[in-house]
Amino acid sequence: MKDNSSRNRVTTTETTFEIIELLKKRDGGRLSEIATELGLAKSTIHRHLSTLKDLEYVIQEDDVYRTGFRFLEIGEQTRTRCSEYQLAHEKVTALASETEERAQFITEEFGRGVYIFREIGEHAVQTDSEIGKRIPIHATAAGKAILASLPDSRVDEIIEQRGLPSLTKHTITSKSTLLKEIDEIREQGYSVNDQENTVGLRAVSVPVKYENGEPLGALSISGPTHRFQGELLEQTLPDLLLGTANELELNIQYL
Q1: What is 4-54 written as a DSSP string?
Q2: How far apart are alpha carbons 148 and 191 in whole angstroms?
Q3: Which of 112, 163, 179, 205 pairs as cysteine with 141 (C-beta 3.0–4.6 A)?
Q4: CA-CA distances (angstroms) from residue 22 to 29, 56, 61, 136, 151?
């Protein structure tokens, strides 16, 4: 989505990152494929790829270019720079082990949810929620828990910036409906995602806050609809998450 900040962008830098994003999306690509998809001359793409290769951010296997492990170093440093995140990781691991489901910690950046940690329990279902994936924040339990922890002005700003795109037929796409649910989340302390991101999957989440009330992120547990229902969905998992978040928040205070 374009905004007023686009006027300040450096075109060559933007092209470089468009190439990187395309290589990530396609799991690699040939020079001609990249040039065609981006609508740029092959000579232009070649200069960018050659520079990225010289800097060791891109590798070349025959005629296919792929992102290099240099990005892994940057990603891990980004994820571990915050000691609070490491405490959250311990809780995610414990939640996955105790529930045998999928547990994750998500934070907000630029109006989207970002997966920081994810652990898979013995009976967890497999999804495409890989680390670093950016998702529409209104369509997940963790995202809604974070929204409920933000000031109304920031919630409005995110909705204006990102919209409310539909991921499934269950996704909330009405601002008034979302704001009503945010009020309910604030009152009950936890959020639920009922197939709003993936059909057949439900999730429960609670926010993790600093002492001043600002959200660090949210812990969530997800699983198939046939297991996530009744008392488990409405009491057992919310109670477990609320207790875990409380412990985490207390630990964060003493860092």
Answers
A1: GGGGG--HHHHHHHHHHHHHHHHTSEEHHHHHHHHT--HHHHHHHHHHHHH
A2: 9
A3: 205
A4: 8, 17, 16, 20, 35
Q: How far apart are CA 140 and CA 202, in angstroms?
A: 9
| Euclidean distance between CA atoms 221 and 104, whole angstroms | 7
Q: What is the pLDDT of residues 175-213, one digit of tens each?
A: 999 999 999 999 999 999 999 999 999 999 999 999 999
At 190, the amino acid letter reads: Y
Residue 41 CA, chain-centre distance (Å), reads 33
Whole-model pTM: value is: 0.82
The secondary structure of 48-115 as a DSSP string is HHHHHHHTTSEEEETTEEEE-THHHHHHHHHHHS-HHHHHHHHHHHHHHHHHSSEEEEEEEETTEEEE
Give the residues across from 38 on adjacent strands. none
Amino acid at 249: E
| Residues 215, 210: Cα–Cα separation, whole Å | 6
Helix axes 175-188, 141-148, angle to 10 degrees: 80
Q: Is 79 exposed, middle or buried (0-12, 13-18, 19+ CB in 10 A)?
A: middle
